[in-house]
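FIELD: query
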Amino acid sequence: MSKPITIVAMMILYEEEKYDLNDKVSKYIPSFSNLKCKSNDEIYKCNNDLKIIHLLTHTSGFKYYDDGLGNISHADTSFLSLQDWIDSLILNQHLEFEPGTDYQYGINQAILGRLIEELSEQSFYQSLKDKIFDPLEMKNTKFYLTKNEREKF
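FIELD: result
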């Protein structure tokens, strides 16, 4: 259920007027100003800016990647932070299309997790905990479970 929870966190931050839906992602995460797009066999600097609304609506051009950098499972084990993962993603993966021009279900929620960190000035988990989990008394909701917690699951 990470996608709905991430979207709720983004909407809370929106209600707090922390961002505008049409803000460029690079306003908060500068590395997104250097995105590359694919077109047939060509790789080029994207003409359109990636906006927050594109991440929220899966129109960013990012997809799910089967292996290597960009495979979201690598975010758990191979990188120290969401920012490290994003920096590697931008260097090693290219958008499938210009942001805002098509739909592709993909890794948008992980990128929004990093954006939540910037907007809330907290870790992704801490922001979710403070704004969603604690107020709703969701005491056992988290990303990583201990062995005992997994047995309860």
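FIELD: remark
The helical segments are 2-15, 52-56, 74-77, 82-92, 108-120, 124-133, 147-152.
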